[in-house]
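One-letter codes give the sequence; the fold follows as tokens. Both lines appear below.
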Amino acid sequence: MKILVPIDGSPLSLAALRHAIALVREGLRAELVLANVQPPANLYEWMRSPDPDALGHIAEAAGQHALETAESLLRDAGLDATELLVTGDPAHALIELIESEGCDAVIMGSHGTSGLLSAFQGSVSQAMLHSSPVPVTLVKPAEPTETEAEEETTAEADEEGEATGA
């Protein structure tokens, strides 16, 4: 089984990778395929640097940077993965990778927003749910533990006190 795990460098994409790693550790015989999709250069980027080679190097560097933490997680788990860096519309590029790499499933992060909100945001996970030819597992943000929620509330109160001079 091959599992595609899109990595954009966000904590949610890394949570999806942790989930995939946990499945493999629990006995799932799977090959992981990590993919970073860089969007094509926009008009502003072309105006600032009309050199396509320079823009390609920038996109490649950004993609490699996004994959660094994922590589570290894999090393710590003692696992290998195929790493791919592509350019294009994220949802379309991921669908193409599913087909070209022969993936059997996708595990990816999701912000867990409602359908209406995600439609306005152009959610890649929403597009994948509707267009993927293979099953898609969405890993949502973890609920904060009671201790984390208390720490966050305390930090917010401290910031508010500093802002008001209290």
